[in-house]
Structure formats: C-alpha cells, structure tokens
Amino acid sequence: MMRVQSFVHSTAAFVHFNLHCRTGVSFRTEMIHFRHPSRRNCSSPLTMLSTSAAEDDRTAGSIFMDKKFCMSLSENIAYRSIESEIASQYSIALVSKSEASLSSYTHCIHILPYEYHSVQSYAIGIQPLETAASNKRRGSRKKKNVTQMQPIFIDFFPPLNSNLGKRVSGQRQGGEMLLKAVAPAKYADEKGGAIIYDLTAGFGQDSMILAAGKTAQVHMVERDPIVSLLLKDAMRRLHLISEHVEEDRCDSLYQKLVLHEDDAVDFCKKKLNELNDGCGGIAEAPDVCYLDPMFPPRTKSAAVKKNMQILHGLFQTNEGSKYDEGRRYQEQELLKQALKLAKSRVVVKRPVNATPLGTSSEISIDNKVPLPSFELIGSINRFDVYIL
C-alpha cells in the first residue's frame, strides 16, 4: 500500500519512474539503475538532513513572497528533466550555479546524487545562499572565514553509525526523551502500535524516531511547499530502498510513515469532521498528537546547527519581530485542535525556558488552552505533555 503520492515503480536494471506530487505534476527521468553494493562515504559534503522543525505563521504560498528560490542546473544532463519540471511546478528560475551565486536568490534547490547499496538514484536538496540583502541586515561588521553552506537533503534511512542512525535504531544511551514523552508503547494494542500525528513535521526527524518505536503509523503533516517537496523525495528514496534492498527496518519505516501536505489546523478540523460523520480518511482518531513549533529566536550568541539555520531562514524565525503574539495565537489554536483530535495525549516540544503554549492567563476565559499535565525537561528542550 502506498503511503504518499511520491513513489517508484521499477522492473528492470535501467528503468523509468514517475514522481507524482500532490499538485499532479509528474517528474520523469531515467536515472535509476542498480550495481554492485556500495555505500557513499558519510563524509561527503552533501549533508544528510537530521533535524526537525515545524510550521510558521504564514500561508503555504506566501513563502515565495519573501524568498527568492532558484533551481540549479547540475552538470549531469540526466537530471535536466527533473530540474525543468520542478522549476516549472514551483515557478522558479532554472539557472547555472554561477548565476545562482551572483544573483539575489535566497535559496537554491539542487538535484544531488544518492546511493545506498544496489540503489543509485538522486536526492532533492536545498541550499541557502549569501545575498546582498542578508549581508546588509548583518550590518557592516565583517565575518571571517564565512563559507557557503552545502546543500542539505532529507534522508529517512541514515547510516546506523551516524548520530541520527543511532537514535532511530535505539542505540542512544539513556533512551530517547521524545519516545518517553509520547509513550507509544502505552497505546499499542491489537492494531500493532500507536497512531501518532506529527502535526509540524518539518524535516521529519522526530517522525522517523517515532516510527522506529512501537507505532502502527506516524502521519507527517507539513504545509510549506518546499519542505513538502523534500519530504516527498525522501519518501521516494525510502520506497526504493525497501523494494530493492533486504532491509527490514527500511520496509517498516516506509509502511509506517504517511505524508500529508496540508495546513495542520485545517488538517485537524477535516479529520474531526470525518470522525464525527463516520466516513472516509482515517478509521479512528490518533492516540497521540505531537507538536514541535518553530522555536522563538535565540537570545544567546551560540550558533544553531546548519540544518536549523535553513529552517529559520525559510520561515524567517531568526528575526525577533517575526515571533509575535499573532504567531503564538496560531500555535495555541493548533494545540486546541490537537487536544480535540487526540484520544490519549498531546505532546508539545518547547525550549527549556519557554512558557507553555497552554496558559489560561494569555487567552480569554471562554477559550482556554490548559496548562500541561506534566513536563519532561532536558538540557535544551522540554516536552509539555497533556493527558486527556
């Protein structure tokens, strides 16, 4: 059963395949073939994405009003059809690498080579670009040794010896706080595990960790069109590996992960209507809803991880004025919808010193968001748990 409209059918050593996005555009190429097992060196400058984040306070299309994307032409001509169709679908310029660096583009999308054992394919990555506008915002102070960030792509099947691979496989010492907060084992029954809704999927790391636990399904909800494109492509590659490499953990992840490109509040409302009407969509409500809103701007000078820099750049949460009461209200609205939809608990990830989203002192008495039932506190993050 296919879990997202981004998948691969292959029947020979050199095949065609179609990548169907929810917008209906089909990417066609002839790039997949199989060869003797090999694994790309993990020290490659093509960084594998290993972070999660979430929704911001803008509509799905408004990101293009503030950001200027381009699609980079790679040296491999076999990628040209994919590059052209992505550029056409998202109405972005198709440029050479030199043009991208010299123009006022803020982000560049790349087609990158990807290999796993006998599978040779590609990955869609994103790269933030240094622009005159961003340099102006930083002021006249010059930074030393500033290097261009390399493209980053999402990998739902990281090497077991990587940090994320260890987390997904349960090798992390002391256990995973996320799994302790969500507690999927508490809700595992005859259906084979808990049903989790990650309502702010971002780059999918938390969804991947949850899917590796005692879960039946993990539904990823993401409304940003570019982030959704990266997630769809990661699902495509995960499906490829599950079909052509004997990896039980890969097949399990693919069967559990379900991607929805939608606004999280609207998604919750639609699922509530389906449940109330007793028709379509889902058979039952999720056991747990998980929220990881984009954190407020950092007040400390320490730099955030490169993959988080990309998310902050996409959602513009690195500017203090962007995290205002309007955005906080929308995060609270999402929490209220999640509390209505979940059967057993809602978990919200927050910075360790941030106030809870649920606090009756900040909203009207007739529209309360409750305080969390308890908290799990780490060194950097905190999980607010709402027991229903």
Explain the overall architecture.
This protein has 388 residues and is an alpha/beta fold. The protein has twelve helices and 16 strands. Helix 10 (264-277) packs parallel to helix 12 (325-341). Strand 1 and strand 2 (26-29) form a beta hairpin. 41% of the residues are buried.
Provide a brief overview of the structure.
Helix content is 30%, strand content 21%.
- Content of β-strand: 15-25%
> How are the strands ordered across the major sheet?
12-11-10-13-14-16-15
Strand-pairing-aware structural class: alpha/beta
Number of helices: 12
The residue ranges in which pLDDT falls below 50 over 5 or more consecutive positions are 1-65, 317-322, 361-365
> How many DSSP-defined strands?
16
Order of helices and strands: EEEEHEHEHEEHEHHEHEHHEHEHHEEE
Q: What's the main sheet like? A: 7 strands, mixed
Shape: globular
CA gyration radius, whole angstroms: 21 Å
Distance between the termini: 32 Å
Helix amount: 25-40%
Mean of the pLDDT scores? 74
Q: Which SSEs are present, and which pair or pack?
A:
Elements: E1 17-20, E2 26-29, E3 33-34, E4 47-49, H1 63-66, E5 69-72, H2 80-89, E6 93-95, H3 97-102, E7 107-116, E8 119-128, H4 132-137, E9 152-154, H5 163-169, H6 177-182, E10 194-198, H7 205-211, E11 215-222, H8 225-244, H9 248-256, E12 257-261, H10 264-277, E13 288-291, H11 306-315, H12 325-341, E14 345-351, E15 374-377, E16 381-387
Parallel strand pairs: 4-9, 5-6, 5-7, 10-11, 10-13, 11-12, 13-14
Antiparallel strand pairs: 1-2, 3-8, 7-8, 14-16, 15-16
Helix pairs in contact: 5-7, 8-9, 10-12
